[in-house]
Fold this sequence. Notes:
This protein is mainly α. The protein is built from eight helices and no strands.
Amino acid sequence: MTDALEAASAQGWHEENHNAERTGWLRAAVLGANDGILSTAGLIVGVASAGQPADVIVMTGVAGLIAGAISMAAGEYVSVKSQADAEEVDKRIEARALKTHPEAEREELVQIYEKRGLDRTLAEAVTDQLMAHDALGTHMRDEIGITEELSAQPVQAAVSSAASFIVGAAVPITAVLLAPDDRIIPLVVAVTLLLLATLGAIGARVGRASMVRGAGRVLFWGVVAMLATAGIGSLFGTDIG
């Protein structure tokens, strides 16, 4: 195998980077940033539409940032931890099966490789070599579909989600601090939509999907959210102020 890799390298072969290796943290980061931008901008636009002064708007945005970051981290951790717990249960079940029924487990792998196109003799040879190297890891990967690289990482997901939420939420708050009092809503809306479109396009690009569709999806929901909060703020503004 080493000789084959060296030969391929000499012929210009290169290691490939696949999206699946970064799916967990990327999903959490994109979700956190989108939520941070949109939820905070929505709060700001709603409160500003109700006629509240700039200091109240900023305080509302900061409160939303803190609560949202904690909520995102907790929710992401609980969700991914549940997945990690399920994976751990599967691992224990597979380890017990390998200990009590090794031949049956071997046959399962042989049949898996046969279904993938190997003949019986080669499937048995591959199974024996892989099980001799790492029986549990081989079964987790090829029988259940769980690998170390793609396994659930709850702490990583929680930190990525909270950090990206904070970064996203800081943008509309900064816009409020920089904008004149009579330009808060237009500036926050413009900055939010621009950043949402950019983030949607980047996320699509990283996932090798259409950047236009990625930006369009995020923009659509951003416009809907801010129209809704602006309408509610305008409707109840006299009661709030």
